[in-house]
Amino acid sequence: MFPVHPSEQVIDGLPCYPNLGAVLEPLDTITVYLSEKNSTPLMEEIIANKPRRVILNPGAENAILAERCKAAGIQVLEACTLVLLRTGQF
What range does the domain containing 62 cover? Predict the structure, then answer.
């Protein structure tokens, strides 16, 4: 898990990265908790990371981001990451 936040250095005891580009590991899944207003500016950065899937959590739905990801061959789920983890679907 690689938490990303522009102004935090540690989240839940894990080192936090200022942006997705700072994460040097390949990313299988990017889970988004940001509103459409806040996630749209990150669209190119998300797509450039070429994750296998992007999960848009409740409240983070973004039709434009979803469409762009799908066009780039990235699976998009509108789902709660915590529910997916709890039910073994993650």
Answer: 25-86
